[in-house]
Amino acid sequence: MPSPLHPLLYPASIAIIGASRTPGKVGHDILANLLASGFTGELVPVNPAGSEILGLACLPELKGSGKKIDLAVIAVPRPLVEGAVTDALAAGAGAVVVITAGFKEMDAQGAALEKRLAALCAARQARMLGPNCLGLINSRHRMNASFAAKMPTPGDISVISQSGALATAILDLAAGRHLGLAKLISIGNKADISEVDLLLALTADPDTKVIIAYLEDISSGEEFIKAATETSSQKPVVILKSGTTAAGQQAASSHTGVLAGADLAYGAAFRRSGVIRADTFESLFDYATAFAMQPLPAGDRVLIITNAGGPGTMAADAVEQAGMKVAVLDSNTAAALRSKLPRAASVGNPIDVLGDAEPERYATVLTAAQDDPAVDAIVVILTPQAMTRPAETARAIAACLKGDKPVVAAFMGGEDVLPGRAELVAAGLPDYPSPERAVAALKAMYDYACWRKRPPRVVTRFRVNRRRVERIITRRLRSGHSQLGEVKSKSVLAAYGFQVPEGYLATTTEEAVEVAERIGFPVALKIVSPDIIHKSDLGGVRLNVIDAAATRDAFDLMMLRIGQRAPNALVEGIYVEKMLNKGLEVIIGMSRDPQFGPMLMFGLGGIFVEVMKDVTFHLAPISEADAVMMLKSTRSYEILEGRRGQQGVDLVAIAQGLQRISQLTTDFPQITELDINPFIVGEIGRPPVVADARMTLR
Questions:
Q1: What is the rounded CA–CA span in Å between residue 234 and residue 346?
Q2: Does the pLDDT value for residue 611 go beyond 90?
Q3: CB–CB of 144/130 below 8 Å?
Q4: So what's the pLDDT on residue 259?
Q5: C-alpha to C-alpha distance for 396 and 156, rounded to whole angstroms
Q6: 339 near 386, Cβ under 8 Å?
Q7: Which helix (H) or strand (E) holds 548?
Q8: Arithmetic mean of pLDDT, 619-637
């Protein structure tokens, strides 16, 4: 069954509405590009003023011409676009590309027009690319339906770009690297066709081996994760994401909400769906080149071959810093290399073949490295020394490639190594200007390989009391308050299986003393008010109260201070609670991202969250493996494990707590922020306890 985007990507006939005789005008350049690219289908220029353009018969209008077309490319002024789309649909167009700008990016009138265009297309079951886009290119279909200056050679990489200008830069860079492209699609305002549609279409595209994208926003977080996961399961997706500002953080009231930002949400979404994230324009192509040209590594053990000690050390440092391993050669491999290399050469890792290395010396080491079962990936470094022959060395390297392990090169330098770089590209070997960039590409490949081998995600559903939580949330929202304070938050968490210390609300001094004596000293006293979020800041917390007299004093003083410091706050009373045994303080939280939903947070409490911000985020719902990964991805994981004689804590209990929060916040979209801070955890077998908690509702 053909893809819904088949008329867009593989049209047999194209109308160019707004074709022009004037070079430099968009309508002229699109038609000229289609002719220059060798498009073999029918081209139909449309312009009311012309009978012939670039040797083709020109229609004054499509309407009433009797022409049937697959695709219409529209480059007319904004007031004429709606009529052009209507005419194209009447002529049977299954897809339209609106090049024209001036829609939602300009004003409300343009936004309204954009919606009408999308509705017109939907009514005829046609698809629209744009508006405000560069167009698209399909190299193997010999179709350049864009106003970009270059037509790429056919290749394995397809490009999605939300920026037309960046799309032209990608074309130029690809040409400079002698890198072929399969398709390039500029999505513009995404009034209809979005990155989700294109990911699904390119997943099924036999010409596309790797997908790269530049995105400024994502239309639907849930749909994106589903589509990207499906695509990543079959081929690599590398995305450069811009515009990741922490919008909305000013309104956050929890630690989690303050620390969470749009950029973290996108990072979590990419990790969930197997997307490789590029941090820079250069890394976008660095990664794509490696994925397109080399196999995935079976593991993380990297061998370095170099003709200079310094660059070899740089590469080794980069491997370690990336979290991979500097490979240890098999003893047989090492012995064989010692017999073949000069005595001064190093056969450790990095393997230094010396500055006078002939091409054959590189080939000898590379062949042995590919045969070594202790090596998963190889970096070949060359620096231009007096005896170096870059072009011949590149050819020797290429000749001995076996194709079962990834090999990347770093030919360092400028003019002297250019001939070698050209040979590497011709042989399908990725080349980078520095060891660090070569290693970064291998790291991206290794991370993706690990994701591909991940076990199936199994999300545990715990037995909980949903009805109790529904009642609490409904009553709080009916009262007009969006904050769920400590007492009610703990009730919610208890309904979802968390252990909370015994405690009761007291409205008088006598009630406070009675509660304290009943649950046993020492106790903690905490103010209860929907209007007070940070209790400690206003003197609303007193810990380690040891007897009845101290309870009376603490109750009276707290009520006096709150009356002075927050005179307009609604005070429901003071919560008297059993003091907890000591343990390690951690924080578990959730902030609901508008695009991707509940984003869970974990970190150590105290200075680790306040100052060091040693926290990790993951999108809900999470599996047990996801929860464990969250713990391991913090810098302070060693403290949790227990090292150097220190007692570790119950990691399984923390992971289960994260899973329960995942279930709670998935079940109740009314919860927009949640903090359990601190969550007191102890040794294995000692259940963790919620010491303090708060939630924000919508």
A1: 40
A2: no
A3: no
A4: 61
A5: 25
A6: no
A7: helix 548-565
A8: 93
pLDDT level of residue 641 (50, 70, 90 thresholds):
confident
Residues 6+ positions from 339 with CB-CB distance below 8 Å: none
Q: Residue 233, Cβ neighbours under 10 Å: how many?
A: 13
- Contact at 8 Å (CB) between 435 and 307? no
Provide the phi-psi class of 644: left if phi over 0, else alpha when psi is between -120 and 50, else beta: left
The H or E element that residue 228 is part of is helix 221-232
- Measured between alpha carbons, how far is 220 from 594 in angstroms, rounded to an integer? 10
Written in H, E and C, the secondary structure of 593-662 is ECCCEEEEEEEECCHHHHCCCCEEEEECCCCHHHHHHHHHCCCCHHHHHCCCCCCCCCHHHHHHHHHHHH
d(C-alpha 130, C-alpha 255), whole Å: 40
How far apart CA 480 and CA 482 sit, in angstroms, is: 7
Distance CA 257, CA 617 (A): 11
* Alpha-carbon dihedral angle through residues 648, 653, 655, 660, given to the nearest 10 degrees: -160
Residue 17 and residue 597: Cα distance in Å, rounded? 42
Best CA proximity match to 193, nearest among 274, 56, 68, 96 = 96
- Cα-flanking dihedrals φ and ψ of residue 448, to 5°? -65, -40
Q: Angle 393-396-397 (CA atoms, 0-180°, nearest 5)?
A: 85
pLDDT(254) > 70: no
CB 676 within 8 A of CB 492: no
CA atoms within 13 Å, Cβ hemisphere of 563: 7
Give me 60's structure tokens. Answer: 């004054």
Helix H or strand E encompassing 493: helix 486-495
Domains of the chain are 6-208 (3.40.50.720), 295-452 (3.40.50.261), 502-578 (3.30.1490.20), 584-697 (3.30.470.20)
Q: Tell me: the pLDDT tens digits for 384-414?
A: 998 899 999 999 999 999 999 999 999 999 8
| Burial of residue 371 (number of CB atoms within 10 Å: 0-12, 13-18, 19+) | middle
